[in-house]
Amino acid sequence: MSSHPHAHPDHRPPLRAAHLSILAHPDDDLYFMNPEVLQAIRSGAPTTSIYLTNGESDGRNPHPWEPRDQVPADREAYAKARQNGLLGAYAAMALADRAARWTRTTLRGPHGTVLETCRLERAPHITLVFLNLRQYAPEDPQVRLRTLWTGQAPSVRTIVPTGGAVEAECAYDRDALIDVLAGLLEHFRPTAVRIMDPDPDHQEHNAQFPQRHDYGDHSDHQDHTYAALFSLEAIERHRSSGAARPFTVTSYRGYYNERWPHNLGVYASSCKEHYLNVYGAADGYDCGDPAGSGDYSVGFGARGTGWVQSTTHRYAGGTDWLRRDAGGRLSAFGVLGGEAVMWQETGPGTGQWGGPWRLGGGPLAPQLSVCATPDGRLHVVGLRYAALGAGADAHRRQLVHLAQTEPGGAFGPWRDLGNPADSADRVRQLGAPVAAVDGQGRLHVFARNWGKGVSSRVLEPAGGWSEWIDLRGSQLQEGLSAAVNHDGRIELFAPARDRVAHWVQDEDGPLLRLTPRFKLSTPAGATSSAVQANGRVIALYRKPERAVTLVGRQGDPGGGWPHGPQSRGGRGGYGPVAATALTTSGMEDCALLATRNDFGGVSCAVLTPDGANWADLGLDGIAGGLIGAPSVSTDSLGRGIVGAIGADAHLYLARQTSLAAPVFSPWLRVG
């Protein structure tokens, strides 16, 4: 494989994990990325958070008992108060001591810029970096990140927080901001990057979903969106420099969280709320700085926003990235540095692996979907950032497809599948794709579209792609899944606002149709599905605000779904529940499950008709923690295999040692 022009080996030495987040405002990480930032900090890996603006707004920072209009505006003091609250929250996450000391210094960047860095003295692996850009210019609120990106504003000046290390203003033009971020990426050399959502949902605002701080007809704050776009541009510049280590990128939804079923259980949401209360000095804590001890409006008010109760990845793709090929070898796929990569067993069931091999295709969004056609060839589909334009009409997002030229062989070139949307703004609301192959050998690619329905394209066995097909659906969340039932027809599942939506393929053609009155209840985020050895399809998802696993079962192979879901417990967490059938004798109605849990590790269970016996695999041996959701498969000997991507950009695998129980070997690091 390494000799093929589309599969390049990566011979770099094992990496030490390093986390880096890029935020628009202080508190974006606490609201939208936690508990993952907390888990990164507690892993002991270097953790850096970069804040583009101070979110100083109109400069008023009232306590909960003070009328806002009676508090004098002081943007410099409010900027410093938000920084103070953030330092307290990070110190509490790292040391359980909000008053722990920080060292403040300045860092000179390109284009005459000056940044402020804060390092936690008793936990020096934690660094916060403040660029101190004004959220908007007081004399012209249109001068801000959005207009800096589009070129309408030639530059944005910084603010000098009261009593900070930086003593004078500077200005950033568009290139300066990208260069500074690219320079910080080169300086900190992260293996796990976190950013906000570059392509928020279209949102119709009404009494049910008021405008609040959304920008235009989008479901997020404009600063979140443009901070993410600047981040992606800097990431691409960093990747192209040749200095980057392999790294993952995870994007997080923002105000989206308030409008969809909440996906965190009590423990995780309470944990987020606790550190936001520290940030907001909700208990009246006084750090001794006259500028303020936190963002007082957040204290004891965080839960009311609806943002605390969910942590949502923008690209909630499937869990099918670990698969057996035609020869029985397992292959795993991921996205590192914006390019597709593959790891592979050296032989069926050996437990010995090679890779990663770079497959290109970038710049890609984080999630890939993988399936195999009847001839044994593996197919990979993903979402590409085809263009990040300054103008609204210059953005392009497209689905892309990659296939092996022969079973077990090299991969051919990437193919552009386009986008079902036909306008510049709508192309950005495309979701992560899911692929499946029906019994006739047709390859189907499905994706959530801008209208929150489903669109698909179909590749016929003889070659040739269909045009885009509108499968309808409405008010769908991200996180589709597809299973091929016992008679070769695809069943598609999608999480809707108040139910699981379900499609079944026609008996005589490629078209899928919505099932009326499907009985599965409201999901919190992505669905997943699997076909058991007895031919029955199962659908899995999480219960809102409880995070337990719910399982729906088909009544008969290829038949209806007469019953509602059953709760099968779990260890909290969020994201899709990976599932694969167990094929050993006597386990035809069982499946192996794997999920991300409340503590950022992996929990597994053997699902039987009577329940699920959960056990934690833990994080021992996974450097820096887990990125995204795990995947599961079985090897050529029928043993369950759990795969996870570590924060160090390595693949980790655990092999089942007891076929009837969730008992696994220690994690094996690959590559």
UniProtKB/TrEMBL annotation:
InterPro entries: GlcNAc_PI_deacetylase-related, LmbE-like_dom_sf, PLL-like_beta-prop. Residues 326-670 form the PLL-like beta propeller domain. GO terms for molecular function: hydrolase activity, acting on carbon-nitrogen (but not peptide) bonds, in linear amides. Residues 57-70 have a biased composition (Basic and acidic residues). This is PLL-like beta propeller domain-containing protein. Residues 49-70, 551-572 are annotated as: Disordered. It comes from the Bacteria. Residues 555-572 have a biased composition (Gly residues). Keywords: Zinc. GO terms for biological process: glycoside metabolic process. The lineage of its organism: Bacteria, Bacillati, Actinomycetota, Actinomycetes, Kitasatosporales. It comes from Streptomyces noursei. Gene3D superfamilies: LmbE-like.
